[in-house]
Amino acid sequence: MRRTSDSHQPATLLSGSVVVAFALLICAVLFILGAYWWASGKAREEIRSAGDRHLQIISLDLESVLERYETLPYALAYLPLASQILATPGDAQKLAQFHAALKDIQQQSKLAAIYLMDKNGNTIAASNWDTPQSFMGQNFSFRPYFKEAIQGGTGHFYAIGNTTSVPGYFISQPVFGDGNGDDNVGESADKNADENTHQLAGKKLDRIRSAVHNLNRSPKRTPIGVIAVKISLTEFEKAWRSSEEPIALSDQHGVIFLSNRPAWQYHSLQTLNDDVQRLIAQTLQYGGKPIASLASLPKSERADIGQLGESSRDELSDVKSKVQSKVQSNYVTRPIGRLSWQLMLFPSESTIRRAGIQAALVAFLLLILLATAAAVFHQRRRRLDERHLARQELQSALQQAADDLEQRIALRTQELTHANAQLATKYSKLQYAENLLRSTQDEMVQTGKLAMLGQMAAGMTHELNQPLTAIRAFADNAMTFLARGKVPQANENLQHISDASARMGAIISQLKGFARKSPEAVAEVDLAVSLKAAALLMQSEFERQNVALLLSSQTGLLVLGDAVRIEQVLINLMRNALDSVVQKMQRQQEIEYSQRGPTQVSVLLEADEQDAIIRIIDTGTGLPEQVIQHLFEPFFTTKASEQGLGLGLAISSSIVQAMNGSLCAENRLQGGAEFTVKIPRWMGRV
Predict the structure, then answer these.
(1) Which DSSP symbol is given to 122?
(2) What is the pLDDT of residue 590?
(3) How far apart are the C-alpha atoms of 29 and 373, rounded to whole Å?
(4) CA–CA separation, 231 vs 159, rounded Å?
(5) How do residues 166-207 score in pLDDT, each as one tens digit?
(6) CA 492 to CA 324: how far, in whole Å?
(7) 457-484 and 527-544 helices cross at what angle (nearest 10)?
(8) Which of 72, 196, 461, 462: CA 20 to 30 A from 253?
(9) Which pairing describes strands 155-160 and 123-126: parallel, antiparallel, or unpaired?
């Protein structure tokens, strides 16, 4: 018996697991469905609430437009010209004045049209009298707004224009004769009739409205005509098109005449009976268009309508008694205007369904997450048990490994400490070598400058000797002139002495600045200024050797560097170019002067998008190919030992490279050599 009981135990456990799994599945399905219905209901409630607020804003805007023009026909009916034209329709002068006044009022009020009809419904004056679609001569006695006004009341009607085929909202008022009118109003109106028609349409219209406001109509008076205004509501329809949800405005019969869904226009919410169809046809309210129900539209066009039951027809019939908006099962509605209109907004069912589906998906993902977490928790419990057994076995091995690791770390730490000490020693030596190299390089640059000054000494002596000789001669002459009493001539000689002294001061100042040891200050340098300074020091040498020095006139090229060192590079390159030209001149001494080539050195300043370029071009002997390869190496020279040590070009190249530039040389096809210096341009950016 015990074996039988034991054999049934696994089957019982399996059956219990299936039941639990089935119960959990049912709970999960119910949870997902509950999430769907809850989210759908909440979304429906929020969408309806938002739609109700939106509809309230639209209705207030629409009501304000309709009420804005409510008193305008009343005021126009008391214009003296209106009753006078109805009394004497053949008076062309008054008719022209009235046409102009109506047109101005229509344009200022932004109305579709204003027109005057006689008691038979014939239009005898209109604001659009001069347009192809003029109302003049048209008979509107069949319109309800005319019938209501000719009986002494106020007419309201919405219809498609019989002449223009443009829909609009019509407001009409009766026009009474002058005989029974108020004397003060008539006197004021007669005076205003003689004034300019534009003033009548503007400021005088306000005065007339104020006058007729206090006028009490006599119930015994009979209208002699009707004046009506037409208001266009198409701007509302355009504004509604920005809404994703359908918005519609229907009349008292349930016919939609304004909507952001063009296919809905001139369709009824329910099928109209024969009496209503006959009434719409008689008044030509919708231009003779057949009015079908929304149910006749294709399914794609009525997807957002929902279910329109008989309750909707009942609600349409008593819409006049509603003051607050009502939320229907499928749409939100609000009464509008004096004609029992109904403004409707249809909440999107797809949005509601989408919210429910999203909530259901979130619930489904949450259930999956919970199931995954439960499975992970169960698996983790099993892994923890296995790890607990393995942890005890590994503790001893880990302890041994930790001891070995500590020994290795201690040994490695000693090695790293020793290596760091060696690196620190090498770094100190490297810093010392770098400082020594930099100091040596600075001294080498200074030595190169002094060497160039020595080479220019003869020219500078000649350059300074001439002003000194001139100063002595002008001083002697000044003394003589003073002795003879010739003060103007003496002053002129003293001015020459001052000019010569200034020139000597400029040369000496330039020599002092060039010979001064540069502090390696990096600053903004104008290449044109540096070129002029270098040329000033070399000018006498060029003149002494009878070689022309041509300088570029371009200005505004800026670089970052040391102005003195840039001048040193320019002087060295101009000196080498001069030596090359002089060497060629010495070789051509036996040739006739007319057959010799030009003897000149040109310095050009150019620029591209990135670099400032200096070209030093000479007409000398050029550079041999084997010399170009070693041209910028230290102590390499093709001159005699007393003319230099071969450091000039090497120093110049290092100076240019320190400014992230380059220095190169090449021979020209026309003869001579060309040295090119490229230095990155400075645009004033940090």
Answers:
(1) B
(2) 60
(3) 19
(4) 11
(5) 899 999 999 998 643 333 333 333 333 333 333 444 444 454
(6) 108
(7) 80
(8) 72
(9) unpaired
Phi and psi of 344, rounded to 5°? Answer: -125, 145
Strand order in the sheet with 341-345: 292-293, 267-268, 255-259, 247-250, 341-345, 332-336, 326-327
pLDDT for position 21: 79
534, 570 contact by CB (below 8 A): yes
Tell me whether strands 113-118 and 223-231 are parallel, antiparallel or unpaired: antiparallel
Separation between Cα atoms, residue 504 and residue 589, nearest integer Å: 34
Q: Collect all residues with Cβ–Cβ distance below 8 Å to 504 and sequence separation of at least 6.
A: 464, 467, 468
**Mind listing the pLDDT tens digit for each residue in 114-173?**
999 999 999 999 999 988 889 998 999 999 999 999 998 999 999 888 788 889 999 999
**Whole-number pLDDT of residue 114:** 94
Nearest to 120 by CA among 98, 88, 143, 91: 143
User: Which H or E run includes 332?
Assistant: strand 332-336
Q: Which helix (H) or strand (E) is 268 found in, with range? A: strand 267-268
d(CA 55, CA 336): 11
The Cα 411–Cα 405 span in angstroms is: 10
Vertex 40, ends 39 and 42: CA angle to 5°?
65
Q: Which of 120, 173, 111 is nearest to 145 (CA)?
A: 173
pLDDT in tens, 261-292: 888 888 888 888 888 888 888 888 887 788 88
Mean pLDDT (whole number) for 574-582: 89
Region of residue 546 (phi > 0: left; psi between -120 and 50: alpha; otherwise: beta): left
Q: Distance (Å, rounded) from C-alpha 21 to C-alpha 626?
A: 95
Q: How many CB atoms lie within 10 A of CB 679?
A: 24
CA distance 40 to 356: 5
Is 648:578 a contact under the CB 8 Å cutoff? Answer: no
More confident residue, 451 or 632: 632
Alpha-carbon distance 584 to 578, whole Å? 10
Name the pairing type of β-strands 326-327 and 292-293.
Answer: unpaired
CA angle 402, 407, 408 (to 5 degrees): 95
Do residues 649 and 576 make contact, with C-beta atoms less than 8 angstroms apart?
A: yes
Look up residue 307 and give its two tokens.
Answer: 């279910």
Instruction: Supply the pLDDT for residue 200.
Output: 40
Residue 650 has pLDDT above 90, yes or no: no
How much is the CA Rg of the chain, to the nearest whole Å?
Answer: 54
Which residue in 256, 270, 267 sits closest to 312, CA to CA? 270
Chain centroid, CA 497 distance in Å: 67
pLDDT at res. 311: 39
Asked whether residue 454 carries a pLDDT value surpassing 50, the answer given is yes
User: Would you say residue 555 has pLDDT above 70?
Assistant: yes
Report d(CA 526, CA 614) in Å as an integer.
12
CA 174/CA 225 separation, integer angstroms = 6
CA distance 116 to 85: 9
Coil/strand/helix, residue 273: coil
Provide the 3-class DSSP secondary structure of residue 328.
coil
Collapsed DSSP state (helix, strand, coil) of residue 282? helix
DSSP conformation letters of 540-581 = HHHHHTT-EEEE------EEEE-HHHHHHHHHHHHHHHHHHH
What are the tens digits of pLDDT across the range 212-269?
444 444 445 789 999 999 998 888 888 888 877 788 888 888 898 888 888 888 888 8
Q: Tell me which residue has tokens 């037409």.
A: 230
Nearest to 197 by CA among 99, 67, 69, 88: 99
Measure the CA–CA gap between 34 and 363, rounded to whole angstroms. 9
Taking Cα atoms as reference points, which of 112, 143, 141 lies closest to residue 127? 112
Residue 43 has pLDDT above 90, yes or no: no
Instruction: Give SS3 for 606.
Output: strand
